[in-house]
Amino acid sequence: MASEIRNAALWESGEMKIQWVKQNMPLLRALEEEFSADKPFKGLRVALSVHLEAKTAYLCKVLAAGGAEMYVTGSNPLSTQDDVAAALVHAGLNVFAWHGATEEEYGRHISRVIEAAPNIIIDDGGDLVHTIHMKYPELVPGVIGGCEETTTGILRLIAMNREQMLKFPMVLVNNADCKHLFDNRYGTGQSVWDGINRTTNLIVAGKKVVVAGYGWCGKGVAMRAKGLGAEVIVTEIDPVKALEAMMDGFEVMKMNKAAEVGDFFVTVTGCNDVITEKDFMKMKDGAICCNAGHFDCEVDVAGLRKISVRSWQARNNIMGYELPNGRSVYVIAEGRLVNLAAGDGHPAEIMDMSFAIQALSALWLVKHGTKGRMLGNMVVSVPEEIDKRVAVMELKSRGLEIDTLTVDQERYLNGWRE
Ligand SMILES: NC(=O)c1ccc[n+]([C@@H]2O[C@H](COP(=O)([O-])OP(=O)(O)OC[C@H]3O[C@@H](n4cnc5c(N)ncnc54)[C@H](O)[C@@H]3O)[C@@H](O)[C@H]2O)c1
Prior knowledge:
Helix content: 40-55%
Shape: globular
Strand content: 15-25%
Largest sheet: 8 strands, parallel
CATH architecture of the largest domain: 3-Layer(aba) Sandwich
Bound molecules: nicotinamide-adenine-dinucleotide
CATH class of the largest domain: Alpha Beta
CATH superfamily of the largest domain: Adenosylhomocysteinase-like
């Protein structure tokens, strides 16, 4: 067993967190039971790079229960929880991650996981896939395939595939209905406000909240801001999404205009340079910016540092910046994912669905791919039966029953003569 973590002695606190989420992740518990009996991952090495907190740790334990030799790292230097990493090491898994890793350390941890020569890759944002292709091409033939968790990672995979650079199949977990409809919308919606609220301890009601991007995540963030009593403004680049936001009852305008009126700014676009120097200079005194998109390139924090005359730690995880015009703006968690770098991520029940899709997609790869032999198509949708199975499991776990079609109804829906 190998590891590179901050402090192994923290394991008890991490284990307590894992037990708490396990209580609230019935789908993964069912899969743990199934995998423990069948050992479908026996003899396989699984490399995983996902925000390393308790829910991810439980996914790692479920895969390990299925016989996988786990090599684990985080997917963002600020979202790794050191006690959770310690608990996984205590349980015998190989972990390379710590909170606040420098860029060099983060890159080394990704490399250490890849150097284990994985057969299955579970990625969140594309760092493992990118690194193995660019730095360890000799290990590529040993990979059966992988699963990608998030929208930004999928965009990178599609770009790689377009240039025929992707050399093993990747299942697009984010695109499953049971992932993005719930995780991106309700998960991000709730956890972003949890992160902002616990970090700022300020009232949201009566304030103007600017949400940049009205995709699945943006819809959730806007919906919950409205629920907290905010006036919500949406900025978009897609005309259809902009109209959707308008019809949902939100104001729509350009960022440069919204910059003048917003109290809170949340970027969730997956795009870079969404809030830049010219926007900061228009902001009201005391405006608070944060990001919920995957990478820390949406709020131009480097640009803000450059133009500001002074910066200071305003509160735990909040930096203040005084602008040349005398006003101050604040940034939460250095512009990294606010719900993970300033919170505990999505609620457990949400990640239960997302990670059930992950676990079942990994199982699907094991059943349908063979080491070194490619499946042909390199970007693979989550099979519909997996999506359905997870929805049925989730309904059952919540004690909900739904109707089933009668034979006559099925004939009616599928025919054209009546
Ligand atoms: N914080 C989290 O826990 C979490 C969870 C899931 C996804 N994500 C990440 O959040 C980001 C968004 O994911 P999504 O699933 O909502 O994607 P999405 O594709 O559904 O939505 C993104 C939206 O942003 C818009 N957009 C793009 N560039 C823009 C710009 N410059 N200004 C304004 N709008 C712009 C697009 O038109 C689109 O409507 C991705 O980076 C994704 O990886 C974060």
